[in-house]
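Anyone have tokens for YqgU-like 6-bladed beta-propeller domain-containing protein? Sequence:
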Amino acid sequence: MKQYASICFLLCVLLAGCSKTTDNLDEKLTEDEKIEQDKEIINEVAEQRLQADPSVFHFIADWLTDTEILYVEKNEGKYEVKSFNIESGQRKVIFEDDAFVINVWVHPSQEYLLIHTSDQYDAAIVKMLSLDGRVLHEIEIASTELEVQWNSIDPQKILFTAFHEDWSFDIFAFDGHLEDLKIVNVEDPFPKWFGEKHIVAAKLNDHPLDGARVERVHVETGEREMLSENHIVYMDTFKDSILFVEAPVDGFYTYKLQSANRTDFTEWKMPAVSNYSEWVVPEIEWINETTVVLTGSEKEGQLDDLAGQYSLYLITEGQLQKKLHDLDNAPLKCSPSGNKCLIDHTSEELVDMETSKRYRWIEFTK
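Reply: yep, here.
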């Protein structure tokens, strides 16, 4: 059944960057004084640097392993998904396709890839591959824009939100065990997997700044259960863990993370940022069920006034470690172990999370 995303909160925020509670951010940041003030980009490093030709380079995709990064190039009419080893400098072609490659994902098991391709504006083809490049499943979906959510426990289960030209949308659940694609009826265009059989979806309040409630929906039976009260402005999941961000009180967001083996939430607070009509919460990177990496603003305020005032944090069981500062609000891509992360809007800079050193791992030839 065709649905409409009429509230910009879901499009701009959910797509976007006994409890342990922190009364304010500064109390948690005793490591801040240990961070050197001049985190300049290091040119001479042990890791290899990819020399890339800008005339054929397409985009940086994801980490394949702790030492290999996936990227896409177009060579002689074909799009090639390649890997580059930052320690050895070795390059490999994993997959090639005639169709335009839009996105590439690596499953948390590190055993499968998803390749989103298209050769026409109103249709998408998603291919699931083994790491040796064999196509295991191929799904074609009518859409002008496609959102993909891959189940982090069972790689055979994928959610697709297919947007159409009028911004109406359809949500599909794919089960590779059965080769079955079915409609899922939820109002939220950006639901997330929660365990193997459930998804979670937002139910909006009257105004985006008031946040939403979150419900859990069984994909097969449609059974529903409310998981939160009002005022959730961001949520994300990994396996059986879930993270909520509550609308700010006194200028601070409250982050709440619940893992599968706990009945309570781990909590911490961070300064709130808005963009006039909605709250801005950077997306997080899950390392495991209790550890996340994220960026956060140093102070509350408007997004336009906070350029270069974000910091990079490693958070384990609610304990914050600041790893880097003076950053923009940009997406992150972290290696499976969380030892290294790609930062900035183009993912051309790499941060060693143990040393907090940053450097460019890719260089474009002239």
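Residues 251 and 279 are 11 Å apart (CA to CA).
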